[in-house]
Amino acid sequence: MRVVIVGNGPAAACAIEAFRKVDRDSDLIVLSDEEYPTYAPNCMENVIRDDISEEALFYKGGWRFYERYRVDFRPRKEVVKVDNRRKVVVTKDGEEIRYDRCLLAAGASAFVPPIQGVDLGMITTAKTLDDAKRIREWVRTGEVRRAVIVGAGPIGVEDAETLRHLGVEVTVVEISDRVLPRMLDPHMGRVYGETLSREAGIRILLEHQVVAFHGKGRVETVEVRRRGSDRSEFIRTDMVIISTGVRPRTYLVEGTDIEIHVDRKLGKPVGGILVNEFQQTSDPDVFAAGDIASGIDAWGNHRWIALFPPAQQSGYVAGFNLAGKRVRNTGLVDYNAVKTRTVTAGSGGLFEDAEEEMTLEKGPYLIKVFLKEGKVRGYQFVGVPKGKALNPANRLLMDMNGKIKTWEEKVLSDRGLGLEASGVLYHFFLKLGRSVSGLTRRSLEDMILRALANPSLDLPLYL
């Protein structure tokens, strides 16, 4: 059997591992439009800071991963479409590669709004490893003293804090009424945003939209307007990072009978390639996993969740089933955490349709648990860690020593300590569907800080 995997991210890597546990002999071909082995997509701000090791970045083992699992890995081989009737994938250079079974794990691409002047120099996205390396080089060479980030989602706020700690003056422009609008409700988003702005010195413009970029050859100013206003403000800048979300690469199945996740009432796409609990598309020989797919969540609904943990989960399921097993996905849950040292935040599950909220405030932590029918539906947390600082061993910061001026003393005395939050405790309830009793409520209050501060110390509530 010949299996072709389109994409090389977390879903693809996990599918490879699962597949080879079952099938040691079939041909396994992986096609990637990038030149790198699988890397951690949630560590791009670390690449910008240059404080991540090769072992951590290429977390599956680098090139050795493909040797170990006997994979015919073909980098710089971009796939542009799938012809499932002829069972071939077609590459950008016109090559057709035959398959018996295919996994679409090409992920999602950064969405760039059609804003006037968006093609000017020094405007970039920050999703891929090449993006992060490009930003790092611009900062390293001293070209960037001021930056504007469009969008206050997780990537936007992580990059904002990273650049601010590198001595760059940062403005974040967000059209919503809060930062992290998909992660936090208005109250939690306001707490997080105000703390980030105050502690890190980042200017955040909420309910503003970018209407144009201006400059001669490269961006020099960003024109913004408050939502509903016709008055413009012009922000001088040396660089712009577009962080306005991602879109699944569903163009791969255009012109085929493979179904896309569509809102039937509106007749508009609302997600990725539609898959069942086995990660199969409407073509039983074509599977999809990760950010390109809309899978079934923990409550039995189709949802598009473009996050690292669900990508890994769906990839494993797809890999087993590519090899002929019938393994069901137990249900995806979105979990996301923002890795900023000034203030941290995380969330998981759903909160829009909650019937009840539990709000816990202890020390520097603000925690909300959202309940429906007596069960955990979702959770959010915001926490201000102690001892926040930068890392003096950071190679990029050492290169810039003497250029940062007012931040130099702080940079050189930094220990790089920060809170890494965990949703382990809440996932225990989300995945098992346990009811929340009075005892559980008290246990949550007593034990949650341990899970947030150090996941390795977390203990299950039930044995």
- N-to-C terminal Cα separation, in Å? 43 Å
Based on helices, strands and strand pairing, what is the structural class?
A: alpha/beta
Portion in strands: 25-35%
Model regions low in confidence, pLDDT < 50 over at least 5 residues = 405-422, 447-463
Please give the number of β-strands: 27
Radius of gyration: 23 Å
Major sheet:
5 strands, parallel
Strand order of the largest sheet: 3-2-1-7-20
Q: Quick check: average pLDDT?
A: 87
What level of helicity do the residues show?
25-40%
CATH-derived architecture of the largest domain: 3-Layer(bba) Sandwich
What is the CATH C level class of the largest domain, in words? Alpha Beta
In CATH, the topology of the largest domain is named: FAD/NAD(P)-binding domain
Compute the number of helices. 12
Please indicate the count of domains. Answer: 3
Instruction: Sum up the overall morphology in one term.
Output: globular
The CATH superfamily of the largest domain turns out to be: FAD/NAD(P)-binding domain
Report on this structure.
The protein is an alpha/beta fold and 463 residues long. It folds into three domains: 2-108 and 247-322, FAD/NAD(P)-binding domain; 123-244, FAD/NAD(P)-binding domain (3-Layer(bba) Sandwich); 335-457, no CATH class. It has twelve helices and 27 strands. It has helices at 10-22, 44-49, 54-57, 64-68, 129-140, 154-165, 186-200, 308-322, 395-399, 408-412, 424-432, 438-453; strands at residues 2-6, 27-31, 72-74, 79-83, 88-91, 96-98, 101-104, 108-110, 123-125, 146-150, 169-174, 203-206, 208-214, 221-226, 232-236, 239-242, 246-248, 260-263, 268-274, 286-288, 293-296, 302-303, 335-338, 344-349, 356-362, 365-372, 375-383. A five-stranded parallel beta sheet has the order 3-2-1-7-20, with helices on one face. β13 and β14 (221-226) form a beta hairpin. α1 (10-22) packs parallel to α8. The longest helix has 16 residues, at 438-453. Residues 405-422 and 447-463 have low confidence and may be disordered.
